[in-house]
Amino acid sequence: MRLAASWGLAEWGLRRVELIHAVANPASCRVAEKAGFGLEGTVGNGERYGDGLWYDEHLHGRLPT
């Protein structure tokens, strides 16, 4: 994930890359942070998942700098 984000930011000139995951999944939060994505906030009832329930989500972002 870190390599793909770095490549997109450097080679494609992306201004930002976002990653969103369910708050109920702390492992995804750790992966995002280890890949250089800072936690920017929580989105209430952000998305309906495969089980049909709506979940709060964490929004992570990574910038070129």
Characterise this structure.
The protein is α+β, with helices and mostly antiparallel strands. The protein has one domain: Gcn5-related N-acetyltransferase (GNAT) (Aminopeptidase, 3-Layer(aba) Sandwich), CATH 3.40.630.30. Helix content is 29%, strand content 40%. The chain has helices at residues 2-11, 26-34, and strands spanning 17-22, 38-48, 54-62. A 3-stranded antiparallel β-sheet has the order 1-3-2. The longest helix is centred in the N-terminal third of the chain and has 10 residues, at 2-11. The radius of gyration is 13 Å and the shape is elongated. It starts with a helix and ends with a strand. 15% of the residues are buried.
The count of β-strands is 3
CATH level-3 fold name: Aminopeptidase
Question: Helix coverage percent of residues?
Answer: 25-40%
Number of helices: 2
CA-based shape? elongated
CATH superfamily: Gcn5-related N-acetyltransferase (GNAT)
Calculate Rg over CA atoms: 13 Å
CATH architecture classification name: 3-Layer(aba) Sandwich
Amino- and carboxy-terminal Cα gap: 17 Å
CATH class: Alpha Beta
Across the major sheet, the strand order is 1-3-2
Overall mean pLDDT: 94
Query: N-to-C SSE series?
Result: HEHEE
Reported for the largest beta sheet, the result is: 3 strands, antiparallel
Which structural class do the helices and strands define? Answer: alpha+beta
Strand % is 35-45%
Pick out the low-confidence regions. none
Summarize the structure.
With 65 residues, this protein is α+β, with helices and mostly antiparallel strands. The chain contains two helices and three strands.
